[in-house]
Amino acid sequence: MLDWLRLIRATGLFTILSNIMAATVAATYAEGNLDPKLIVSLLLQGNRMNLLWVALASCLLYASGMIWNDIADIERDRELHPRRPLPSGRISLITAYVVAAILAVASLLVASLVGSYGFYGAGIVLSLALLYDFAGKHVPYLGSLNMALVRFAHALFALLALGDLAYFKMGVLAVVGLFGADVAQDIPLSAAAYPLILGGYVLGVTLISELESRRGHRWELAFGGAILFAAVIAASVRLVTAHWIGSLQQMESYLLVVAGLFLGLGILGLLLYRVLRPWIDAVRTGRKALVGPVVGAALSGLVLLDALVATAFHPLAGLAILALYPVFRLTGRLIRMD
Questions:
Q1: What whole-number distance in Å separates Cα of residue 123 and Cα of residue 118?
Q2: CA nearest 21: which of 194, 177, 146?
């Protein structure tokens, strides 16, 4: 069982859940509403099982993608990581093929329970993941963009968890509007903030992770980190310019303003502490052995980034996501990939 948990990178499932939480919070409160009950009512609106189906489909997509990733890398792993479940033979290649295929099909079937948008949305995420596993990862820079698009597309897919389909359409139209398309004036472009921030962060992480498997230059490590921290800065700007600051001040809820900012800045500080130090050490020394710790720290920072973005849209929302972080860290220690 432990080998299967390692094969699917079970720890990463917590980042999938935090992505869903951040995406739904950002979309729900993009227009300035502060009612904490609003997101609950939306999740219970229409088909009350939507949240479960989206979360389950997302986890199946992730697990399938991780297995296909190791299937594609098995020859390389036999040389570089012989103790992993597939190259060591503890899980047979045929079994991995069958399970990966079953998980992929199951993800589409579960997503279809949300409706046609769910089926096609999951299909896009799965297609992008398979493209990365079998082709994209071998192309410098473009492979990193490919992986960023996987998480970007999933952030939009996650909006289907909200009972009102209008939020999914709003997120898609907001993204399209940011790229110059003519969309309705009542579409808040801030609804595109989270998918873009997440995509930028993952782009930076993947650019850095490329350097684990190929020869690279120090400037590439610096460039990847710059993109990663640009995404963090964008989330921080969203926090300090949050609409709820002015709204709560008008209601004279100064204590909640201070608490929200304290929470957000605390999350930001922890994120920078976790990621900035190993990145600076790696850039300063240029040692390839330090790239892995940077990637590991940045991946663990995904939950913190999600909590930061959620706090930028609602002063209390980050707490729920932040609760996942210690569980994520503990699981990461128990289920380590060799």
A1: 8
A2: 194
pLDDT in tens, 5-59: 999 999 999 999 999 999 999 999 988 888 888 888 888 776 678 999 999 999 9
Q: Which residues, 6 or more positions from 193, have their beta carbon under 8 angstroms from its beta carbon?
A: 26, 30, 234, 238, 309
Global pTM exceeds 0.85: yes
Q: Spell out the residues 6+ positions from residue 327 whose beta carbon is closer than 8 angstroms to its own.
A: 14
Q: Does residue 186 carry a pLDDT above 70?
A: no
Burial class (CB in 10 A: 0-12, 13-18, 19+), 48: exposed
| Euclidean distance between CA atoms 158 and 6, whole angstroms | 25
* Cα 52 from Cα 56, distance rounded (Å): 6
Nearest-angstrom CA–CA distance, 194 and 261: 19
User: Which pair of structure tokens corresponds to residue 106?
Assistant: 């199951």
Q: Which residue would you say has higher pLDDT here, 178 or 152?
A: 152
Sole residue written with tokens 């390389």 = 76
- Between the CA atoms of 34, 50, 53 and 188, what dihedral angle is there, to the nearest 10 degrees? -50
CA distances from 254 to 30, 308, 312 (A): 21, 20, 16
For residue 141, give the nearest of 222, 70, 210, 231 by alpha carbon.
210
The mean per-residue pLDDT over the stretch 164-181 comes to 81
Residue 284 exposed, middle or buried by CB count within 10 Å (0-12, 13-18, 19+): exposed
2-334 folds as Tetracycline Repressor; domain 2 (1.10.357)
What's the start-to-end Cα distance of the chain, in Å?
Answer: 15
Task: Please check whether residue 261 is in contact with residue 239, taking contact to mean a CB–CB distance below 8 angstroms.
Answer: yes
Contact between residue 58 and residue 123 where contact means Cβ atoms under 8 Å apart: no
Q: Residue 183 pLDDT > 90, yes or no?
A: no
pLDDT tens-digit map of 75-90 = 988 988 899 999 999 9
Q: What is the pLDDT of residues 280-315, one digit of tens each?
A: 999 999 888 889 999 999 999 999 999 999 999 999
Residue with tokens 């088909």: 47
Report the distance separating Cα 107 and Cα 149, nearest Å: 18
Domain limits, the chain = 2-334
